[in-house]
Amino acid sequence: TPESLKATRSVPRATSLAALLDHAGVRLDQTARDAVMAFKNARYKELIAGLKPGDAFPGARDALLRCRDLGLRVGVASASMNSREVLERLALLDLVQHVADPREAAPKPSAEIYGISCAALGAFPQHAICIEDGAPMIANLRAEGDQVAFLTQAATPAHDGWLAAMPDGCGQADDAALVFGPHDPRPDASH
Q1: Whole-angstrom Cα distance, residue 31 to residue 91?
Q2: d(CA 99, CA 155)
Q3: What is the distance between the alpha carbons of residues 156 and 160, in angstroms, rounded to a whole number?
Q4: pLDDT tens string for the chain (191 positions)?
Q5: What are phi and psi of 156, to 5 degrees?
C-alpha cells in the first residue's frame, strides 16, 4: 500500500524491512530477517549485473553533461551500497565527482551522508542542492540548513526531456537552484 511504502523511504534496509513486515502483520526472528535481507540483496545484485547504459533514465547522461558544462559538481549520497556499481553499469560514473559510501555515515534519515558528499566536493551544505524523495530525510536536511529539491515518486514529468533540462535552471539566475516543469500524477498516486 502507499502507506507501507512511505515507511520504507530514506531509512536503513533493516528498518524498511521491519516496516513492511509490521504492515503485513508478519513476525520474523532476527535470523529470518537477515536471511530475507541477504536474499533481497543477492537478487538485487543479479538485476544490477544486467544493467546497461540504455537503462538509465532518458536524459540522465545529458543532465550530468550539462552540469559539467555549467561547472556544477555532482555527488551521489545514496543509502545504497551499490550506487557506484549502478552508475558504472549505466556509464554515468565518469560524470559524477563523488559517490558517498553509506557505511561511513549514520544511516538515513541522518543528513550526515550529504555532509560527507559536500565535504568531498568542497561545497558548503547550505550551497548545495540535495535531491531527495523521503519526508524524514527532507526534514533533516532542511533542519541542517540545506537546500532541498523534492522529487516525488507519485508523479511523472510531463515530457521526456525533463531530466536533461534540469541543470539549465541553475544557470538562469544566481539564486536559482533547479527548475521543474509540469508533472502528471500517476494513476496510483494518493494525492
Answers
A1: 37
A2: 27
A3: 10
A4: 666 667 776 667 788 888 888 888 999 999 999 999 899 889 989 999 999 999 988 888 988 898 898 888 888 888 888 889 999 999 999 999 999 998 898 887 788 888 888 889 888 877 777 777 666 777 777 777 766 655 555 555 555 666 666 666 555 544 444 444 444 555 555 54
A5: -120, 135
